[in-house]
C-alpha cells in the first residue's frame, strides 16, 4: 500500500500468489465484494501484477513479487514522469502568464551595467532593433559592434539614429551593418528591441553613461517607439 496499491488490490494480489483462482474464489479468499473484483483484477493486470489464464470460468494468476513489482515499478515511474512533465508545463505557463501581466521597470546605474543590459537585450533580438545615440563613444562602439554584426547576419532589421556630430569613421563602420539616419539635435538616446523592450539613456557624466531605464512596460515602450519613429522620418 505504501507504493500506491490500494488495500483491496493488495488483498487480491496476495490471494493470487497462492495459485490461479477464478473471480468467485478470489472474492472469498480476499474478502472483496463480487461487484468490485473484475475492476480490481483489471487494475492489477494493467500494473503488471496479475495475468488472465483463460478457461471456464476464467482463471487469474499473480505475477511473483520479484517480476511483478519490478514491472509495477517501471510502469509507475513512467506514469509519474508524464505527470511531472505536465505539471512543469502547467506551472511554466502560469509563471509566464503572470510575468506577462506584470511588466517590469528597472533603474540601471553605471556604464558597465548599462552596457551589460543593452548587450543582453540585443542578444535576444529576433525581428528588429532601433538604436538612438547622440554620441557614440569608442567604448560603446567596441562593446556593441560585434553583436550588431551578428544580428545583421541573422537578418534582424537594424536602424540607427545618430547625431551629425558623429565622426565619419564611426559612420563608415556602422553604415556597413545598419540603416542610418542623422539628426542635428537629439535629446537622450537608447534602444528598442523587437518593439517589446526599451532601454532609455537618461544620464551621463561626460562621455560615460551613468543612468538608464530598462522596461517591457507597454506604455513606456510605445513612448520610446513614438519618439524614435518621429525622429526617423525623413527631413522635409
What is the global morphology? rod-shaped
Helices, by number, come to 8
Name given to the CATH architecture of the largest domain: 2-Layer Sandwich
List unreliable stretches of 5+ residues: none
Largest sheet: 7 strands, mixed
Distance between the first and last residues' Cα: 82 Å
SSE topology string: HEHHEEHEHEHEHEEEEH
Q: What is the CATH topology descriptor of the largest domain?
A: Endonuclease, Chain A
Q: What portion of the residues fall into strands of 2 or more residues? A: 15-25%
According to CATH, what is the class of the largest domain?
Alpha Beta
Counted beta strands: 10
Gyration radius, to the nearest Å?
Answer: 34 Å
How would you describe this protein?
The chain is an alpha+beta fold. The chain folds into 2 domains: 1-102, Winged helix-like DNA-binding domain superfamily/Winged helix DNA-binding domain (Arc Repressor Mutant, subunit A), CATH 1.10.10.10; 105-232, Endonuclease, Chain A (2-Layer Sandwich). The protein contains 8 helices and 10 strands. The chain has helices spanning 7-16, 23-30, 34-46, 65-101, 111-123, 138-153, 168-175, 218-232, and strands at residues 21-22, 50-54, 59-62, 105-109, 128-133, 157-163, 179-183, 189-193, 197-205, 208-215. The strands form 2 sheets. It has a 7-stranded mixed β-sheet with strand order 4-10-9-8-5-6-7, with helices on both faces. Strand 2 (50-54) and strand 3 form a beta hairpin. Helix 1 packs across helix 2 (23-30). The longest helix has 37 residues, at 65-101. It is rod-shaped.
